Amino acid sequence: MSLKQIFEEHPERRYIMFGGKGGLGKTTFSAATAYWLASQGKKVLVFSVDPQASLSDIFQKDIFGKGPVKIMENLWAQEIDADQHIKTYQNEIRQKILDMYGFEAVPDEIEQYIQAASAEPAMEESAIFDAVVDIVIGGEYDYYIYDLVPLGHALYYLSMAKVYDEWITKITKLREEMREYEEMVSRMKREKETEEDQILTELQYIRTRINASSSILTDREKTGFFFVIIPEEMILIDEVLTPDSSRFWPKDSYTPGGPQKSFDKQYLRDYLRTLDWKKEPPAPQLPPEVIENTRARYLEALKRLAGRS
Amino acid sequence: MSEEEKKSFWQNMKEVIYGMASHDMSRYALRTRASMEHLFILITMGDMIGIPILPPYYSLRLLPYVVPQISTWKRRLLREKDVSDAMF
Does B55 score more than 70 pLDDT? Predict the structure, then answer.
């Protein structure tokens, strides 16, 4: 059965996801499917939730963080820039605080909280999750093609709707109980109306967003998930058990609950983060000791695993 | 008795009855409500006093509304407790 047949037999399937291991062609399939559907006259948006997206490469156009960009008739492509989304979101929160209380500046401890929150490990995923809700809730396209991140991350991303759903259900319940107390007091004091609880309103708004997202993810009729696989040994050799896909930690220095000494490219990533580089080409020149140190990590992994250097 | 005096008499009676019958109840309800408010801030903004509570992304949306309560909340959570707390 070909992909074409699936789309012809199930025209109601509007949310299409391509998932699988890294480097197998998720982006290629997403782009090709989007292209084919667009050329059939459907209005299509293909978007990537990967911070290292490659839709830009495939369409030969820089679309990162630029919103939906028109590629051709009926076809739009979008790469979500999570960092930018977080920054915009933080600024909205700051502005709201300033507007609500007429402050000149955001109070120190609040500002610290806003900044610390963005450093949380789940922040980037949450921002992407939220950005995707924005995209799909608009509903202006016939087809939404999700170009997912490699599998482990993708599963985490897909499970977020569930985590959020449980969280929000619990705190909404607490908030509603609080509401009952408030109403009881105003009844006893014979006040006509209780003030609207803005937090409850906000929670309900968040809830509709999360529900919109999880109802799409769990809809058998409208949503299709395609696993991209290649039955080649070469692909496995290339990826399985490399220090970047399987994490190796030295046993002697292993301590639960903290960052581990590792043998992967994290060292290089950490170094790049110390630079004032906007992650756009051209990439900065690496100092020889950084190159040497990165190389030493992989060599050590090889030595420890294979017993030779 | 003029109209006005009558009105204020009834008004006073109403307040006395309220005071006798339901003031204590509503005070108690308000106290419970305040405790819940602090509990609520704890489970959404716990991060602020070092309790890592996920997920902070949507908590940020709630932040503007709790800004005025943050300092009393911190004071209440972090202060030492003593016997007289149970009495009032």
Answer: no
Strand order from edge to edge, sheet including A75-79: A69-72, A75-79, A44-48, A143-147, A15-19, A223-227
Nearest to A238 by CA among A21, A18, A51: A21
Cα distances (Å, whole numbers) of residue A213 to A92, A145, A157, A223, A260:
22, 14, 11, 12, 35
Contact A174 B39 (CB under 8 A): yes
CA gap B78, B72 in Å, rounded: 10
Higher per-residue confidence, A4 vs A263? A4
pLDDT at B4: 76
B-chain residue closest to A185, CA distance: B26
DSSP letter string, chain B: --HHHHHHHHHHHHHHHHHHHTHHHHHHHHHHHHHHHHHHHHHHHGGGGT---S-HHHHHHHHHHHGGGHHHHHHHHHSPP-THHHH-
- The residue type at A228: V
Per-residue model confidence (pLDDT) at position A47: 92
Q: Which domains are delineated in chain A?
A: 3-83+123-164+215-227 (3.40.50.300), 243-306 (no CATH)
Q: What pLDDT shows up at residue A83?
A: 87
Using CB atoms and an 8 Å cut-off, which of residues 115-154 of chain A contact chain B? 116-117, 120, 122-123, 126-127, 129-130
| Burial status of residue A49 (CB atoms within 10 A of its CB: 0-12, 13-18, 19 or more) | buried
> Quick one: angle between helices B23-45 and A151-188, nearest 10?
170
Interval A10-36: pLDDT, tens: 999 999 999 887 778 889 999 999 999
Per-residue pLDDT of A103-162, as tens digits, reads 899 998 889 888 888 777 778 888 888 888 889 888 899 999 999 888 777 777 778 888
Nearest CA in chain A to B74: A109
Summary mean pLDDT of chain A: 86
Tokens, residue A81: 């820039």
Give yes or no for A157 touching B (CB within 8 A): no
